[in-house]
Design brief:
Length: 54
């Protein structure tokens, strides 16, 4: 019974690592797909901030 419990805990930790890896891969993929849009947005935002008298 103890051996089963140890393996179950190890499998849960492994699944958590797989889930984190998948989420990181999705985030990187979305960043690569929308790279130009993100860059344009950031540049426009900083340009607006530098032009404003705040």
């Amino acid at each position: 019974m103890r051996k089963w419990g140890r393996n179950t805990l190890h499998n849960k930790q492994g699944m958590e690592m797989v889930q984190v890896a998948i989420l990181v891969a999705i985030a990187v993929t979305l960043g690569l797909i929308f790279k130009s849009e993100i860059t344009d947005f950031v540049n426009d935002t900083f340009s607006s901030l530098s032009k404003s008298k705040f």
